[in-house]
Amino acid sequence: MTNKSVTVIDLGIGNLFSIKSALEYCDFQVTVTFDQKIIEDSSLLVLPGDGAFNYAMSQVKKRGLFEVLKNINHSKKKLLGICVGMQILFDYGLEFEKTEGLGLIPGNVIPLPSSSVSGKKLTIPRIGWNPLIFSSYSNSWKGTLLENNSQLDEVYFIHSFMVNPLNNCNRLADYIYGNHRITAVVEKKGITGCQFHPEKSGKIGLKMLKKFLNMDL
User: Fold this and answer.
1) Which residue of 77, 103, 115, 182 has the smallest Cβ count within 10 Å?
2) pLDDT at residue 217 above 90?
3) Catalytic residue (choose from 26, 83, 95, 194)
4) CATH number for the domain including 172?
């Protein structure tokens, strides 16, 4: 049995079975918990989530995890945020009301554009598969969870809001919707966020999870 372990932070939102199964497929022992002590003692963390930013943050605080997660920048940990779990890594979100996030990556979370660059109405939420591309500010994925992937690999999205990083150096990958560039992957000092669901993106997503789990800090 593997002695490699990863902790999935349980906020009571999202399909925890899917992410647990995907991580176990990567040959890791998975603990799903909101126990503060277990999370503090874990060096490898995954923060999944679905739904609204403000509800996700209310669950973070309700479960006593705000300070634990907010201070993760000062510890030797790796953290992967998925979907809303990625969004709450930022300073604040504007879904329903302005809500404070964890502030681990500078920036905010704003609505997806409702129309294309040419003025055509876009379907919101965006649900479906999109190919990843380099962001305008990155031309290499070496050393990141995307290292073993290629541009135009397709992953599965479902979201109505998008992250807006303050520092473009934190953007790893984008996708195009209505000819707008939408941030798909961010990274900052061991903290990574995916707007899409790698656990629902087949072999492409599993390749990313394996790389993240086995990356050095």
Assistant:
1) 115
2) no
3) 83
4) 3.40.50.880
